[in-house]
Structures are given as structure tokens and as C-alpha cells.
């Protein structure tokens, strides 16, 4: 960590210690709990620190990192899972899974349990309000492991998925997607075959229906137009099941594939309600449809038959300027671009969707940043809360209470 990053971290912590909400503060109307958590990143990888800015209303007012920031770096990172006011986090480096709550200006540990089943957490889905499934590669990347977690008791069952696609030639490792969803009583997610020596993948995407709780592959469909999985980290959001029971997901993790081109395209596929295999009639070529390459990790359901897709202003791995497109799910066509929102920088999961509205934390080159709000019911964009601080990006936004 460089001296500037160290200084900035110390300065922020000092500011937070004087401004964080006290449990007995008479102006605290939420009993120490925060309603919305706006994750910010300070510094650059690997010298990264995470701070949460709290807000009661994303549509108005202002917040400063120095005035409402909570340092979560030593306990959490932005691959957390959120539900009903709690964060869940798999710390693969320390071999533990924990349940946490952010209140009174700090991260409180509810319970931690030892866990070493996954090399890292790739994807998760909820079976019901208290049953969480997480998946990831095994230690050698030659299999996909799972954990079924009772989030009330914080007990879990570990195992491995059986019936995965066979390896081909020199492709003897897997990559597994974070696009896992639960529908029709089964789990659905994708894998690709990886050559870890040449760092390329086999030019085919394998999407599987997996029995629950047996975790046996019952059906596999393939697509040779894409190869990479939707994402390989809990940082991002690339799949959902809509109100009609259809699953949509974004493919490809900026990954090299053989025999086709340098990078697999990031496009949108569908598995319909009641079906186990990919819908052959549905393939949304994002670049062709929108004129832009999809960003690597944000495709979210808005309701009202629409989704929000984050796209890159320029093609390529080094792009760091982004815009947003609204997709009509039924037709697989672009509804419109959100041109009212300025081109913005950085951020992984900088959008929260709630009640048909997308709250987008937008970092620009200016002195002030804002949350922009797109309402899918009215098709209008409005400017919401003003944000300021020493951050380099917005990592995610969560509703906690």
C-alpha cells in the first residue's frame, strides 16, 4: 500500500470516528440501522479499501464519505450477499462464512462459521427466505462445489455437482458462472472449459439444469456463439428470473476463446419457464443491438418487462467509461438508452433496483456526483441524492432496512 493510500485511509477513519452515528443519538430515527448502503472504493487494487455511505432517501439530500462512511475493509468486501438487512460473506482467504449487520457506524458480526468448500464464491441464489445456495470451483478447478446454508441457524451442507460436461483435449479445468438461479424446482447455471496454461477457453458455453437438493446435472444445452460465463465473482449481477418465470442471463467474462476470436462476446440468453434448456429462438447480440459492448457485470430486472444493461462506451478490456441501456425482454430489443445520465467511470454493481426503479450511482469527472433514478413505469430519469468524497468508484448499492 502506498503512502498516499495509507494517509487517506487514516484520514477517513479519523473523520468517521467523529461523525458516525452514535447509538444514543436522538436524531437517529432508525435505531442505529441504515436504510441504504452506498459502497465506495478508496484506492486501487490491490491496495483497496471499502467504505459504506449511509442514506435514508436516495431521491434527495446529500451525503459525504467523510460524514457518513463506515469502514468495512477488514470484515467485508463488495462480493457480499444481502437479504433482509443482513450481509453474508464468504471469506475464502480466511476460510469462514459469516452473517453481519451494519449498524451504529460499524459492522457487527452476528455469527461466523468455518468454511473451506469453495475456492471462491462465484454465484448464489435463494431457495427460500432462509435457505441460501452458494457455488464455486473446487481447489483444483476440476469440479464445482456447493454449500446449502440455513441462514437462521448458520449451519450448512457441502457437496459437489455431479454430471458436469466432459473435458475436451487440453481443456481440463472449469470456469463456473455466477449466473445461478432457482426456478421450477431446479438450479440453472453455466460453465466453460478452461485451458489454464494458455489462459483460453473452449469455444462453447454449457448451461445446465441441476436437481435440488441432489445437485446432479439433469440437462445440458450448449451455445457455440459465446464461450465465457456471465461472471465469475459475487461482485456482479448478471442474471435473474422475471415475473413470468423466465430466466435471462448475460454471458462472457472478457475471456479469450480459441478458434473464434480474441474475446467471447457478452450477449443475453434465455431459459423459459418450465424448460430446462436454452431458448433457441432467443439470442440478444448486445453489440449489434445497442452499438456498444456490454459491460462485464451488470444486467438487472426492472419489472414492467424491461431490464437495465450497463454498456461500455468503447470496446476492449481497458474501457472504464460506461452508459446504460433499457432492454425490452420480450422482444430482445433495445428500448432506449439513458442518454440523460452522463458518461460515468468505474464501479461494479453501482445500481439498485427497487419497485421498478433503477437507482444509479454515477461517478463523473466533476466535483459532485449524483444518484440518477430511472422509473420504468414513467420512462423518466430524475436526479436524486448528491454524493461527495474521496472515493474512486461506487461498488454497489443495497437496501438494508
Radius of gyration, CA atoms, in whole angstroms: 21 Å
Shape estimate: globular
Instruction: Give the strand tally.
Output: 31
Supply the number of helical segments.
3
Q: Decide which structural class fits the backbone.
A: mainly beta
The helix content, as a percent range, equals: under 10%
The average pLDDT is: 89
Largest sheet: 6 strands, antiparallel
Distance between the termini: 35 Å
Structure, described:
With 401 residues, this protein is mostly beta strands. It is 6% helix and 45% strand. It has helices at residues 3-19, 65-68, 286-290, and strands at residues 36-42, 49-55, 62-64, 69-71, 81-83, 86-91, 96-103, 106-114, 123-128, 131-137, 144-150, 155-160, 173-176, 181-183, 186-195, 200-201, 205-211, 217-223, 239-241, 247-250, 268-271, 294-303, 306-312, 321-328, 333-337, 344-345, 351-354, 357-362, 369-375, 380-388, 393-399. Strands 13, 14, 15, 16, 17 and 18 form a 6-stranded antiparallel beta sheet that branches. A 5-stranded mixed beta sheet has the order 3-30-29-28-27. Strands 22, 23, 24, 25 and 26 form a 5-stranded antiparallel beta sheet that branches. The longest helix has 17 residues, at 3-19. The model is unreliable at 1-29 (pLDDT under 50).
Amino acid at each position: 500500500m502506498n503512502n498516499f493510500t495509507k494517509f487517506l485511509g487514516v484520514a477517513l477513519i479519523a473523520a468517521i470516528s467523529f461523525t458516525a452515528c452514535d447509538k444514543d443519538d436522538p436524531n437517529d430515527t432508525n435505531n442505529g440501522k441504515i436504510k441504504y448502503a452506498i459502497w465506495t472504493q478508496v484506492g486501487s487494487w490491490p491496495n483497496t479499501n471499502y467504505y459504506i455511505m449511509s442514506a435514508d432517501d436516495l431521491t434527495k439530500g446529500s451525503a459525504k464519505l467523510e460524514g457518513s462512511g463506515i469502514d468495512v475493509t477488514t470484515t467485508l468486501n463488495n462480493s457480499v450477499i444481502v437479504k433482509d438487512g443482513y450481509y453474508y460473506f464468504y471469506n475464502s482467504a480466511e476460510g469462514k462464512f459469516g452473517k453481519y449487520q451494519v449498524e451504529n457506524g460499524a459492522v457487527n458480526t452476528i455469527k461466523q462459521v468455518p468454511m473451506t468448500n469453495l475456492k471462491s464464491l462465484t454465484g448464489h441464489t435463494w431457495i427460500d427466505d432462509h435457505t441460501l445456495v452458494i457455488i464455486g470451483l473446487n481447489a483444483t478447478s476440476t469440479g464445482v462445489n456447493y454449500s446449502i446454508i440455513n441462514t437462521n441457524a448458520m449451519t450448512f451442507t457441502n457437496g459437489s455437482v455431479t454430471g458436469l460436461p466432459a473435458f475436451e483435449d487440453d481443456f481440463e479445468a472449469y470456469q463456473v458462472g455466477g449466473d445461478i438461479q432457482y426456478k421450477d424446482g431446479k438450479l440453472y447455471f453455466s460453465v466453460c472449459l478452461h485451458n489454464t496454461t494458455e489462459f483460453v477457453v473452449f469455444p462453447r458455453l454449457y448451461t445446465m439444469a441441476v436437481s435440488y437438493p441432489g445437485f446432479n446435472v439433469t440437462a445440458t444445452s450448449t451455445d457455440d456463439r459465446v464461450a465465457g460465463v456471465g461472471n465469475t465473482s459475487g461482485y456482479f449481477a448478471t442474471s435473474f428470473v422475471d415475473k413470468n418465470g423466465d430466466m435471462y442471463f448475460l454471458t462472457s467474462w472478457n475471456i479469450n476463446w480459441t478458434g473464434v476470436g480474441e474475446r467471447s462476446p457478452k450477449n443475453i440468453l434465455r431459459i423459459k419457464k418450465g424448460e430446462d434448456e436454452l431458448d433457441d429462438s432467443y439470442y440478444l447480440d448486445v453489440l449489434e443491438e445497442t452499438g456498444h459492448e456490454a459491460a462485464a457485470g451488470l444486467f438487472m430486472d426492472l419489472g414492467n418487462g424491461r431490464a437495465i444493461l450497463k454498456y461500455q462506451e468503447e470496446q476492449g478490456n481497458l474501457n472504464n467509461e460506461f452508459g446504460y441501456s433499457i432492454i425490452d425482454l420480450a422482444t430482445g430489443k433495445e428500448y432506449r438508452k439513458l442518454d440523460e445520465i452522463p458518461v460515468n467511470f468505474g464501479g461494479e454493481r453501482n445500481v439498485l433496483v427497487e419497485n421498478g426503479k433503477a437507482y444509479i450511482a454515477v461517478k463523473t469527472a466533476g466535483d459532485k456526483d449524483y444518484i440518477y433514478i430511472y422509473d420504468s413505469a414513467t420512462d423518466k430519469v430524475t436526479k436524486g441524492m448528491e454524493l461527495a468524497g474521496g472515493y474512486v468508484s461506487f461498488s454497489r448499492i443495497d437496501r438494508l432496512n
